[in-house]
Amino acid sequence: MTLKLLKIEDGLGKGETIFHSIKNKSEDEKESLRKKFFEKEQKKMKNKEIQEANVQRKVDEKAEKIRAKNAKYEDKKEARNEDAEDEIEDKSEFDGADEDFEDFDEFTETKVAAKKGSLKKIKR
């Protein structure tokens, strides 16, 4: 078995061709290929930087959205706690005496009487 060298490349499948046994290129062609390769690499690096900036921007936007949502939740939580404290203060005024129930009794008697009257009207 005999092996023959065909091609030598700088890098693995993506570098400059150093030697090729079949294709012979002039120095101008080699220089133009080097220039194209360099421009291609520059464009890749630029696109990669842009992509990384976009990813970072999206991560920051998402974090800000979460912070805003948490702040809104905390505000609602504080408002509920303040309302609960107000209710506790209002309940402290209630001492359980009979005069506290007088208004309630009058209200329920009126309501029951109204219901009975409406029931009599329906039955007739």
Keywords:
124 residues; two-stranded antiparallel sheet; 2 helices; disordered C terminus
Overview of the molecule:
The protein has 124 residues and is mainly alpha-helical. It has one domain. It is built from 2 helices and 2 strands; from the N terminus they run E-E-H-H. It has a two-stranded antiparallel sheet with strand order 1-2. The longest helix has 66 residues. It is rod-shaped.
Q: Quick summary of this structure?
A:
The protein is mainly α and 124 residues long.
Beta-strand proportion: 5-15%
Helix run count: 2
> Mean pLDDT across all residues, rounded?
77
How far apart the termini lie comes to 118 Å
Structural class: mainly alpha
- Count of DSSP strands: 2
SSE order and pairing:
Layout: E1 7-9, E2 17-20, H1 27-92, H2 99-123
Antiparallel strand pairs: 1-2
